[in-house]
Write a structure and sequence with these properties.
heterodimer; A: two-stranded antiparallel ribbon; two-stranded antiparallel ribbon; about 60% helix; about 0% strand; B: about 525 residues; 5-stranded mixed β-sheet; 4-stranded mixed β-sheet; 15 strands; about 15% strand
């Protein structure tokens, strides 16, 4: 038995040995029956850290696909006169070549690309790739658990996501094209193959894929919630949870409550398509004949969709907010300002996210009186959001800030969140939304606030926790180049779109030449397209840096390279299955004791001194 | 080959990137980590500051540069009454958010710069500050309250439907893949009823032609409206969702199949006035690329667009919108022909007459037609022009029995005119086609002409003024080889014999009546 005891070499290890909680981990797990060969270790792994990496790398794969799609349609929008014939070897019949040899993107495929870009980025990248990655990686490590509550369900969560991706990927190769009715898939367009080629087999596979995805989210969500509630280590009260964990926890609850509604909306879609019901269809004349469907309502779908759809944007942004709060605090060497206010604002945002969905539907023909309530609740969200922004800025105030790529992306996140959040105040006000609805102003708003900002949160997380994932650092110089390219480039893409939107140009237009009012911005569209290509190139730089660093990055030499307080930095440099080799650390204080009492940082496992108050009081 | 080159380029860039990474790592080892860290902190924090200045400058300069293209600024103020209140809300929000934007962005980047890590530097311990937090919760809450109240005030005003006693022009727009079908109510001011099941190639909106309110409805190719009059647009969709979007008027509303929606607005500027307001601006003094003879401001038009994804042609659903003076509007309306009259009337899809009744619009049209023909005949210079066919006088098949419709409408018009012009003496000439025996045809035509005369006499027209004659198959006006031609040949002609307005009329009539007797 004596050989099983690990000799403590650092202060942290000593503390764990002395004060930690002994769950007789090694007695049970001798020989690790769960990870006995390559397949069970790296493919069908039940280790939350491996699953996190699987989510991340799959998310990166989809981000590249989705990003490339946006470049193709941006080329069409920015350079409609230029020939795209050179894309024909890849896109085949979707590039239509005229008699002079000039190739243009087919309209059908333009809309398919727009639709797929949205679906992939929202669900596969920013939901699975962001929340899936960091909830999996950080929840057990930060709450002091050996793994998720149910490693099996956790593994299934990933593989359902994988399956969803597989179905979506195959739909790209259908002869009628993938689904092309917008990522919101409003009926009747999405229900009727007569209305659009992509609404045939493309839509069938799209719905199937997303139902599988909902299953994945639910399995993951149940696990995150259970783990946070039940597997916190000794001393880890809810008020001692690091902010990312609060964010992941609340995100999982939101997902659990809203994704089933999306699934039910999709089941009704399937019934209407396959069984001839009329939930969403009424009084339609198409393809030369009147359909039998009467009595349904397309607006019902919009209610069901946005009942998920709006919480979904918080499912995307809350994890990023949590990550950013942590990264800002660690690298500013200061406690996050107003920890409790941060938690309460997450709770407030989560609650409000369920009662604002119809602000996407001001112009849908719903009773204008109802919109009053949705305007009020929507604009109330600005208050907790503003509190968060002020608190982040206050976290920087008086700090001792280290500028590594993680910190830069966290600062960039705050800048993006301010810019994109403020335009939400325009759109949430129904009177202004009359003009702005479905214009490029909306495109600019949501790309900045939940696209770019969420990506920045994700990058901050990847750069920050890469050492915990792979035992190496990502290259900081490349990381900074990546940051500056993305920061400048993302604003270059999306800032001008506000002006296009303010000129009233509608989104989802294949060409702007038909209308006098919309044709003034050819130069700006070129500029945006060029910026998009450059930004994409900078993301490739990130991918190179990522994979290069996995094998060749600078090695992590100390257990706690950032001098951070949270539990993940008390694990070995390369934690194995079970995370801590011996006892589980016990938590003695809150997560943000930076700069307290002259100490640079005090880890959570350090006991409180006599008379010391916990939690920044 | 290109693909190969592209791949090589990407690989090359990757290699360069990796090398940069390696070199900087090595350099930091040589210089000492701490030194490098401090140096790079200093550089990065400066770059953050520079970025902030450039970014904020870019925001201001670009906004100024593009202001004359943006709706609500420069020349592009709203062209509708309610649009002004929306623009005002927009501008208030711009001011409020711009203040917050500049304060927070400057604080963010300035603090990042100021509190960069230095050797031996220490962060302050400031976990929270209740006063501060209360202040920056309350301030946004108060500002939001003002924006909400202002916004909802405008919203409820804009979205209110018209009251029953208000004067309003109601028009209809139906979106379909990929165009807009427009409908105006016509003189009765009512849009007729519709049912999507009635839609077909000649009935784009599915109008119920048995509803008389439909028969005078117009299907114009553009929206023309008088300035300063309240308009209610009824918005429909035929197949999928569309959105009725008039950018210059701040009008936008989804078109939903099975659920008509509406938007009420009042145009405030005519197309011409809007052009004049653009004229001052350099951006609109350049030649129009589509019409290089003219400048952009001269060719400006209001437009109707679709703002809800509806399929591949979503981007092309344009209709012209013209705002004109009341007089021009009325002129335009007068020139429009009801869709029923131009396309449906008399076709296989025309359900009229129903229960022996013709719709009043048809009755009116026929009356007008008869008056015009009679007028022509009475003013005619030559004999041929003095005759015309009574198209709507018909008989029961194979007999000389007048149909009820002929009596009720066509002959009622004749009676009326005979009473109006007491001097008028007319001939009623029956003709047949060439089927059947010539003798019988002659007899039938004579009987039919008599039937008309008798009916008119019954109605109080003096028999002296009516000369009935039958000509059988003679003088065919159509080709007897075709059904259409034969139909034309079976006819009753009306000839002004005396009492016309031209001098010669007197003499010729006498001659003709002589021949007859």
């Amino acid at each position: 038995m004596a050989t099983a005891v690990i000799q403590p070499s650092t202060v942290e290890e000593k503390l764990i040995q002395e004060l930690g909680y002994d769950d007789h981990f090694h007695d049970h797990h001798h020989g690790d029956k769960y990870q006995s060969n390559f397949i069970t270790t790296y493919v069908f792994s039940q280790d939350h850290k491996i699953i996190a990496k699987q989510f991340l790398i799959t998310g990166m794969f989809w981000a590249i696909i989705g990003g490339l799609m946006s470049l193709v349609f941006r080329l069409q929008l920015g350079f409609p006169e230029e020939s795209l014939a050179w894309l024909q070897p890849v896109l085949g019949k979707w590039i239509e070549i005229n008699a002079e040899g000039v190739g243009t993107l087919s309209q059908e495929f333009y809309y398919a690309l727009v639709t797929m870009h949205g679906t992939i980025l929202v669900f596969f990248v920013l939901t699975a790739g962001l929340s899936g990655t960091f909830s999996n990686l950080l929840i057990p490590l930060m709450v002091g658990a050996r793994d998720m509550a149910s490693p099996l369900l956790n593994m299934m969560s990933y593989w359902f996501f994988f399956l969803a991706g597989l179905v979506m990927f195959f739909s790209l190769f259908l002869s009628t094209g993938p689904f092309s009715g917008g990522w919101t898939a409003y009926p009747p367009l999405s229900l009727l193959p007569e209305a659009s080629a992509g609404s045939g087999a493309g839509m069938t596979m799209w719905t199937l894929s997303l139902v599988l995805f909902v299953v994945s989210v639910l399995l993951g969500g149940i696990n995150y919630i259970t783990t946070v509630l039940n597997l916190r280590t000794k001393g880890m009260t809810m008020w001692r949870l690091p902010l990312p964990i609060w964010a992941f926890f609340i995100t999982a609850i939101i997902g659990l409550l809203s994704f089933p509604v999306l699934a039910s909306a999709f089941f009704l879609v399937m019934f209407d398509r396959e069984l001839g019901t009329s939930f969403y269809l009424s009084e339609i004349f198409i393809g030369g004949q009147a359909l039998d469907h009467v009595g349904g309502s397309p607006v019902l779908y919009q209610h069901l969709f946005w009942f998920l759809g709006h919480p979904e944007v918080y499912i995307i942004i809350l994890p990023a907010m949590g990550i950013v709060s942590e990264v800002l605090s660690v690298h500013a060497r200061k406690p996050v300002f107003g920890y409790k206010a941060m938690v309460y604002s997450i709770l407030a945002i989560a609650f409000l996210s369920f009662i604002v969905w119809a602000h996407h539907m001001f112009m849908s023909g719903v009773n204008p009186f109802i919109s009053n309530f949705f305007v009020i609740f929507t604009l109330i969200i600005a208050v907790p959001s503003a509190v968060k922004v002020f608190n982040w800025i206050a976290t920087l105030y008086g700090g001792n800030i280290r500028f590594n790529p993680a910190m830069l992306f966290a600062i960039g996140f705050v800048s993006m969140f301010i810019s994109g959040g403020l335009t939400g105040i325009f759109l949430g006000n129904s009177a202004i939304d009359i003009q702005m609805h479905d214009t490029y102003f909306v495109v600019a708003h949501f790309h900045i606030v939940m696209g770019v900002a969420a990506f920045f949160g994700m990058y901050a997380g990847v750069y920050h926790w890469f050492p915990k994932m792979y035992g190496r650092f990502m290259n900081a110089t490349l990381g900074k180049i990546h940051f500056w390219g993305t920061m400048v480039g993302a604003y270059a893409i999306f800032w001008p779109m506000h002006y296009i939107g303010m000129a009233g140009v509608p989104r989802r237009y294949y060409s702007f030449d038909t209308f006098q009012a919309f044709g003034h911005f050819a130069e700006m569209n070129k500029f945006i397209t060029v910026a998009a290509i450059l930004v994409f190139a900078f993301q490739i730089l990130f991918v190179i840096n990522f994979f290069y660093s996995i094998w060749k990055g600078k090695k992590v030499e100390t257990q706690n390279p950032y001098g951070a307080t949270t539990l993940e930095w008390t694990t070995p440099i390369n934690p194995g299955h079970g995370n801590w080799p011996g006892k589980i650390p016990a938590v003695q204080r809150w997560a943000y004791d930076y700069g307290k009492d002259g100490e640079e940082y005090i880890p959570q496992i350090m006991p409180l001194k006599e008379g010391e108050h916990d939690g920044g009081h | 080959m290109t693909a190969l080159l592209a791949t090589l380029c990407i690989i090359l860039i990757a290699v360069i990137a990796v090398q940069i990474g390696k070199v900087t790592e090595l350099a930091s080892k040589i210089r000492g980590e701490e030194d490098t860290q401090e140096r790079s902190n200093r550089t990065t924090s400066r770059w953050l500051l520079i970025f902030m200045v450039l970014f904020l400058a870019f925001c201001v300069v670009s906004a100024y540069y593009y202001k004359n293209y943006m709706l609500g600024y420069g020349p592009h103020e709203a062209a509708s009454t309610h649009g002004r209140s929306l623009d005002r809300m927009f501008n208030i929000t711009v001011v409020v958010t711009a203040i917050v934007f500049f304060i927070t962005q400057i604080a963010l980047f300035w603090f990042s710069y100021k509190y960069r890590q230095r050797k031996g530097g220490k962060a302050i311990f400031m976990p929270h500050n209740n006063t501060l937090e209360v202040v920056w919760t309350v301030i946004p809450a108060v500002v939001m309250t003002f924006l909400v109240v202002g916004g909802l005030d405008a919203w409820n005003d804009v979205m209110a439907d018209v009251g029953t006693d208000e004067e309003v022009i109601e028009i209809e727009a139906m979106g379909y893949q990929f165009a807009w079908q427009l409908r105006y109510p016509g003189p009765d001011g009512k849009l007729g009823s519709r049912d999507f099941r009635l839609t077909d190639g000649t009935n784009p909106i599915g109008q119920d032609w048995t509803d008389e309110a439909n028969l005078d409805d117009l299907h114009p190719g553009e929206i023309v409206l008088p300035v300063g009059k309240q308009v209610r647009v009824r918005i429909l969709a035929r197949d999928v969702l569309h959105d009725f979007y008039l950018p210059h008027f701040r009008v936008k509303m989804d078109a939903v199949p099975g659920m008509p929606t509406y938007f009420v607005f009042t145009p405030e500027k005519t197309t011409e006035e809007y052009r004049q307001s653009l004229r001052e601006y350099a951006e609109y003094q350049i030649p129009d690329p589509n019409d290089p003879e003219k400048q952009l401001w001269e060719t400006f038009e209001y437009e109707l667009a679709c703002a809800e994804l509806c399929g591949t042609g979503h981007w092309s659903m344009r209709r012209l919108v013209r705002i004109v003076s009341q007089d021009e509007y009325e002129d335009w309306l007068d020139k429009q022909q009801p869709y029923y009259m131009s396309t449906i009337y008399g076709s296989d899809n025309d359900p009229w007459p129903i229960d022996g009744e013709l719709p009043s619009i048809v009755e009116g049209a026929r009356q007008q037609e008869f008056t015009d023909l009679l007028d022509g005949a009475m003013n005619a210079a030559t004999d041929e022009e003095r005759s015309f066919v009574l198209d709507y006088v018909t008989f029961e098949t194979g007999s000389a029995e007048l149909t009820e419709l002929s009596k009720k409408y066509a002959l009622a018009n004749v009676v009326e005119s005979m009473n109006e012009y007491p001097d008028l003496v007319v001939g009623l000439d029956g003709y047949t086609d060439n089927t059947g025996e010539a003798g019988l045809n002659l007899e039938l035509s004579q009987q039919r002409a008599e039937a008309v005369r008798n009916y008119l006499v019954e109605q109080g027209v003096s028999g002296d003024r009516l000369v009935a004659s039958g000509y059988g198959e003679a003088n065919p006006i159509g080709d007897n080889a075709t059904e259409k031609g034969r139909m034309q040949n079976r006819r009753t002609e009306f000839t002004v014999l005396a009492g016309g307005f031209t001098a010669e009329a007197e003499t010729t009539t006498t001659e003709e009546s002589t021949t007859e007797s």
